[in-house]
Amino acid sequence: MADETAATEGERANPRKVREGVVVSTSMDKTAVVAVTDRVRHPRYNKTVQRTNKLYAHDETNDLNVGDRVRVQETRPLSKTKRWRVTEVLERAR
Q1: What is the 3-state secondary structure (H, E, C) of the chain?
Q2: Which of 19, 23, 94 minimizes the C-alpha distance to 64?
Q3: Which of 61-72 are b and which e, b meaning 16 or more Cβ less than 10 Å from the residue's Cβ?
Q4: Which of 6, 9, 40, 82 has the most C-beta neighbours closer than 10 Å?
Q5: Which of 3.40.50.300, 3.40.50.720, 1.10.10.60, 2.40.50.140 would CATH assign to domain 16-91?
Q6: What is the pLDDT of the chain when averaged over all its residues?
Q7: Is the dihedral of CA 27, 33, 57, 73 positive or negative?
Q8: Who contacts 55 (Cβ-Cβ below 8 Å, separation ≥6)?
Q9: Bias category Basic and acidic residues: which stretches (predicted)?
Q10: Is the pLDDT of residue 57 over 90?
Q11: Cα gap 45→62, rounded to integer Å
């Protein structure tokens, strides 16, 4: 019952992932490559290490530039590698 009410209110049972990152490439049409950095503890040495993932994000308006901080959200597959879309620009590159 609770699942049905959540679906009618617009809430997803399994919410889409949201990440923040920096645009590293805008060479493709309507696509931006966003580098997302995660800080994780090393399992053995307990030192904090940075892990960077590159996500291909859909940019409908082609207005992003390299260095912009953006928020991306998971979406259905848009191409072979593109699984994310840009929801908002947090900070423009100087």
Answers
A1: CHHHHHHHCCCCCCCCCEEEEEEEECCCCCEEEEEEEEEEECCCCCCEEEEEEEEEEECCCCCCCCCCEEEEEECCCCCCCCCEEEEEEEECCC
A2: 23
A3: eeebeeebebeb
A4: 82
A5: 2.40.50.140
A6: 91
A7: negative
A8: 19, 21, 33, 34, 35, 36, 72, 83, 84
A9: 9-20
A10: yes
A11: 43
Dig out the tokens for 80 from the structure.
């072979």
Q: Nearest Cα to 53, choosing from 75, 68, 72?
A: 72
Token pair recorded at residue 13: 């049972």
Q: SS3 for 3?
A: helix
Residue with tokens 């997302």, as numbered in its chain: 36
Q: Is 65 a residue whose pLDDT tops 90?
A: yes
Locate tokens 């260095």: which residue? 67
Whose tokens are 């259905």? That residue is 76
